[in-house]
Write a structure and sequence with these properties.
Structural class: alpha+beta
Helix content: 25-40%
CATH topology: YaeB-like fold
CATH class: Alpha Beta
Number of domains: 1
Strand order of the largest sheet: 1-5-4-3-2
Largest sheet: 5 strands, mixed
Length: 110
């Protein structure tokens, strides 16, 4: 059974990822798609597909201290990866990275 709970807060993992997102033009398909993902996370933080713990890149675990990872499909074969956690009772969806499908396959060694 899939979890269903709205994210109360959406954050970017770091300033660089957020800055890259903000630098996209308002009409850019990628910015629109990420905004749609954010809206979906606010409806259900677990709307993405879970990534098995064994294949979560170690750099994500070491750098961000995550223990779960999900991917969300974007148009044109792109992927957005994010983690969900609670902090002081607030459910947070944290956007870690977004990239093309070939980049995703390299990162996750598919």
């Amino acid at each position: 059974m899939r979890l269903f709970k709205p994210a109360e807060k959406i954050i970017f993992v770091d300033e660089k990822i957020e800055k890259n997102f903000n630098s996209l033009g308002e009409e850019d398909w990628l910015k629109k798609a990420i905004r749609r993902a954010i809206t979906d996370f606010k409806e259900n933080a677990f709307c993405g597909e879970r990534i098995k713990k064994e294949i979560i890149p170690k750099v994500y675990i070491q750098k961000y201290g995550i223990d779960n990872l999900l991917w969300y499909p974007l148009p044109n074969g792109w992927r957005l990866v994010y983690s969900v956690f609670a902090n002081e009772g607030v459910l947070i969806a944290m956007i870690i990275e977004y990239f093309s499908h070939p980049e995703y396959e390299i990162k996750f060694k598919y």
